[in-house]
């Protein structure tokens, strides 16, 4: 530790010519980032040497997204030096929390899928498993959201400006990626060889982010690739005065890693997206193969020493890329290359939403990646032939990789991986029984489940130090090391003083959040009110609209039926993909409700609506510990798992949810008396869909629905979109908000009643915290380790 503080002083002197007394916060920030990074790099050196010596199997985790969150606090916490650094800084007049605020959130992901990847990197590192993440160094991560007059606006997020200090540039490991051009078959004395001509080369530059683990010597790496033109700018054009042309190819090349696509759960066949996918998978595969060959002098044992995990289909071009490298660069035959390939890949599916299952049109794809296209096409031919040979009565319409001139990436992944998993029990069952049922028939045993998990060290240890400290003292077990031991809390279920202490901690977190709300929105919220929270991407299937409809109902009842409900603060935070019009309309609706209530002194005594802009990891860390109610109200069958549900439970919020995704497992863990469940089940949703859902019938047949929607229309003032949304609900309502409305209302009433019984609520909250152990990412990753990857800790 002494050396750490010395290093800070030395850095300030050398870099800025400043002693710590004269340093600015910004300089302290930079010093802490760089010194922490270098300390981790040093640890990494020892760790990687052990790993190399042991010649053990490693995992490479491919993901288009890693929603890393701020790194500095996480690293100091994991290194166990946070409080010393805090004291050292405070002796010198600095507040560590203010230094943390300077760091931007590396927003290299959209939502759950990206955050899951980061939780897994953290958990695996804490457990000393050898894993390397691969992704793209997006210059602009997920956009910054600003709400203006209720409408979402997007602004670029230039996170590298201050975020770059955490990265290490590895100029020695650049690779070249080839796009366009033509492939020619050539017969040589060694047989058929592929010659690739007239291609456009792009360089991938590697940047490493050190991933620290909790109280461990392990340090893993997230490698992020940045694109750059091969050969820089065109000097001849520049000399001729053609300045903009001279840098054109450079600009095109660099556009590849310019920006993260801000769409979650939908797939638009964009050319740049294909380029991004191939860019990072090719760069990563080339590096993996090169390293492996260097270590073993052969690739025959690749599958024994390497697992490549494909996080959703976005990195699926890894598969044909490995085939290409094996055949075109290392001269393997098709059969031998295929044998290695299908033993190397494992694939996780994260969604069954049809619009999110990636498909590429052959016309778009083939010119960009001609060689890769031929390989996919050959994989498909052989697969279809194999199906016929085994005589399986299989449905090739459903299973063929290329169908109607579209390449179906999920099918490619299933055919080419040895393991396919879903992310909750329900989701994995749907994959087997429905979405991929024919595949499940011909590949018995290939499909499995690993229910998601979360990095509790971040989501409890760091986000809620007050609760962590209290539980540590109370339980006398290191539940941060092993979350399963948190179940000891159950012993205190009848201990009123414990219930009171938990309630007091919740209150502290609510006060902190209320301050943030005041500062950022100007709204004053009552910290004695129920904090009812829905925070996640804005998607119709997640049904923020159902939540809004309930608030409109309460408004009507308070205003016209003298209802005096227990006070509630509805807190929303959500980004909408920039092209998603309906999602933006829902944000506008929520903001309009908030405004109307705020203007009405009669109503605002009871209910308030807060929309916090720019949802991101660091904001989630502020909201989650303060939540009383966790809204997990997706249409059943649509949310593959959810992970926010787990984070909220861990912090003592009670779930109000449908039987969807991991809610089902939360229900099983806490029991029916400690959760609020409503709505149609996923089978009921399917049945109703098949029969033909008509929301208008629900509107006509239920007076409460009718009155609420009719009232909603009266709120329209021309600038708001109440009428528009009312029409939408009555005429379309694709996710069946109206079908579930009454049962949702019933559970909301029960919540209100239960909350007022402070002991009962406290006990329910305690039971939730105590049963959250199984949702640790340590548990989830251990299942990957044992059931899928078969790797060992680095000792
Ligand atoms: C998602 C699912 O929508 C979400 O339910 C799940 O928790 C997450 C991680 O498995 O993956 N799939 C996509 S796409 N985005 C997600 O957040």
UniProtKB/TrEMBL annotation:
<dbReference type="GO" id="GO:0030170">
    <property type="term" value="F:pyridoxal phosphate binding"/>
</dbReference>
<comment type="function">
    <text>Allosteric enzyme that catalyzes the rate-limiting step in glycogen catabolism, the phosphorolytic cleavage of glycogen to produce glucose-1-phosphate, and plays a central role in maintaining cellular and organismal glucose homeostasis.</text>
</comment>
<dbReference type="Pfam" id="PF00343">
    <property type="entry name" value="Phosphorylase"/>
</dbReference>
<keyword id="KW-0963">Cytoplasm</keyword>
<keyword id="KW-0119">Carbohydrate metabolism</keyword>
<comment type="similarity">
    <text>Belongs to the glycogen phosphorylase family.</text>
</comment>
<keyword id="KW-0021">Allosteric enzyme</keyword>
<comment type="function">
    <text>Phosphorylase is an important allosteric enzyme in carbohydrate metabolism. Enzymes from different sources differ in their regulatory mechanisms and in their natural substrates. However, all known phosphorylases share catalytic and structural properties.</text>
</comment>
<feature type="modified residue" description="N6-(pyridoxal phosphate)lysine">
    <location>
        <position position="647"/>
    </location>
</feature>
<dbReference type="GO" id="GO:0005737">
    <property type="term" value="C:cytoplasm"/>
</dbReference>
<dbReference type="InterPro" id="IPR000811">
    <property type="entry name" value="Glyco_trans_35"/>
</dbReference>
<keyword id="KW-0328">Glycosyltransferase</keyword>
<keyword id="KW-0808">Transferase</keyword>
<protein>
    <recommendedName>
        <fullName>Alpha-1,4 glucan phosphorylase</fullName>
        <ecNumber>2.4.1.1</ecNumber>
    </recommendedName>
</protein>
<dbReference type="InterPro" id="IPR035090">
    <property type="entry name" value="Pyridoxal_P_attach_site"/>
</dbReference>
<dbReference type="GO" id="GO:0008184">
    <property type="term" value="F:glycogen phosphorylase activity"/>
</dbReference>
<dbReference type="GO" id="GO:0005980">
    <property type="term" value="P:glycogen catabolic process"/>
</dbReference>
<dbReference type="InterPro" id="IPR011833">
    <property type="entry name" value="Glycg_phsphrylas"/>
</dbReference>
<keyword id="KW-0663">Pyridoxal phosphate</keyword>
């Amino acid at each position: 530790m002494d050396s750490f503080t010395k290093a800070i002083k030395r850095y300030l002197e050398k870099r800025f010519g400043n002693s710590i007394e004269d340093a600015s916060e910004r300089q302290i920030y930079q010093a802490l980032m760089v010194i922490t990074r270098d300390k981790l790099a040093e640890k990494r050196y020892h760790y990687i040497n052990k790993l190399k010596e042991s010649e053990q199997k490693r995992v490479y985790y491919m993901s288009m997204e890693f929603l890393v969150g701020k790194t500095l606090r996480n690293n100091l916490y994991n290194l166990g030096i946070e409080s010393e650094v805090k004291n050292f800084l405070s002796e010198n007049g600095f507040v560590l929390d203010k230094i943390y605020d300077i760091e931007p959130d590396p927003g290299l992901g959209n939502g759950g899928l990206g955050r899951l990847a980061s939780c897994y990197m953290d958990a695996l590192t804490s457990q000393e498993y050898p894993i390397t993440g691969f992704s793209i160094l997006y210059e602009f991560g997920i956009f910054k959201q600003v709400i203006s007059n209720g409408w979402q606006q997007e602004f670029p997020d230039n996170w590298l400006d201050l975020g770059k200090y955490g990265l290490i540039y590895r100029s020695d490991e650049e690779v070249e990626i080839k796009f366009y051009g033509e492939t020619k078959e050539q017969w040589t004395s060694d047989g058929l060889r592929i010659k690739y001509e007239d291609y456009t080369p792009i360089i991938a530059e590697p940047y490493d982010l050190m991933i620290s683990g909790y109280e461990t010597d392990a340090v893993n790496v997230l490698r992020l690739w940045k694109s750059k033109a091969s050969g820089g700018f065109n000097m001849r054009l520049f000399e001729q005065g053609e300045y903009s042309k001279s840098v054109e190819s450079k600009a095109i090349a660099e556009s590849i890693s310019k920006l993260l696509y801000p769409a979650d759960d939908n797939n638009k066949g964009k050319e740049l997206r294909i380029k991004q996918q191939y860019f990072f998978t090719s760069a990563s595969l080339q590096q993996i193969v090169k390293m492996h060959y260097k270590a073993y002098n052969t690739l025959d044992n690749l599958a024994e020493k390497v697992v490549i995990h494909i996080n959703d289909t976005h990195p699926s071009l890894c598969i044909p890329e490995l085939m290409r490298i094996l055949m075109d660069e290392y001269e393997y035959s098709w059969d031998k290359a295929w044998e290695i390939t299908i033993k190397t890949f494992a694939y996780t599916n994260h969604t069954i939403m049809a619009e999110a299952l990636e498909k590429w049109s052959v016309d778009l794809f083939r010119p960009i990646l001609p060689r890769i296209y031929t390989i996919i096409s050959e994989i498909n031919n052989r697969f279809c032939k194999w199906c016929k040979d085994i005589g399986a009565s299989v449905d090739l319409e459903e299973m063929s990789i290329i169908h109607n001139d579209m390449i179906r990436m999920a099918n490619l992944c299933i055919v080419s991986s040895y393991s396919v998993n879903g992310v909750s029990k329900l989701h994995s069952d749907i994959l087997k029984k429905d979405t991929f049922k024919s595949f499940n028939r011909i590949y018995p045993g290939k499909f499995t489940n690993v229910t998601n998990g979360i990095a509790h060290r971040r989501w409890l240890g760091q986000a809620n130090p007050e609760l962590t400290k209290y539980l540590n003292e109370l339980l006398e077990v290191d539940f941060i090391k092993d979350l399963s031991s948190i179940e000891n809390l159950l012993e205190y279920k009848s201990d009123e003083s414990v219930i009171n202490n938990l309630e007091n901690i919740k209150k502290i977190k609510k006060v902190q959040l209320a301050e943030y709300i005041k500062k950022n929105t100007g709204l004053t919220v009552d910290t004695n009110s129920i904090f009812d929270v829905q925070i996640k991407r804005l998607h119709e299937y997640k049904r923020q609209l159902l939540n809004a409809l309930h608030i409109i109902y309460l408004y009507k009842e308070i205003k016209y039926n003298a209802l005096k409900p227990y006070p509630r603060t509805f807190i929303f935070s959500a980004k909408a993909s920039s092209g998603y019009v309906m999602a933006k309309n829902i944000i506008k609706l929520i903001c309009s409700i908030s405004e109307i209530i705020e203007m009405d002194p009669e109503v605002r005594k009871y209910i308030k609506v807060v929309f916090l802009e720019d949802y991101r990891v660091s904001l989630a860390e502020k909201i989650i510990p303060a939540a009383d109610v966790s809204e997990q109200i997706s249409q059943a069958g649509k949310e593959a798992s959810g992970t926010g549900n787990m984070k909220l439970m861990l912090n003592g919020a009670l779930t109000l949810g449908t039987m969807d995704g991991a809610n089902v497992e939360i229900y099983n863990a806490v029991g029916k008396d400690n959760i609020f469940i409503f709505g149609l089940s996923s089978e009921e949703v399917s049945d109703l869909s098949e029969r033909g859902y008509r929301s208008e019938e629900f509107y006509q047949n239920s007076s409460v629905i009718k009155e609420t929607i009719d009232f909603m229309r009266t709120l329209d003032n021309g600038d708001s979109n109440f009428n528009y949304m009312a029409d939408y609900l009555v005429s379309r309502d694709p996710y069946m908000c109206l079908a579930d409305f009454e049962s949702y209302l019933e559970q909301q009433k029960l919540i209100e009643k239960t909350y007022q019984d402070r002991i009962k609520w406290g006990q329910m909250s305690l039971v939730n915290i105590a049963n959250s152990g199984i949702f640790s990412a340590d548990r989830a990753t251990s299942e990957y380790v044992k059931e899928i990857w078969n790797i060992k800790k680095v000792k």
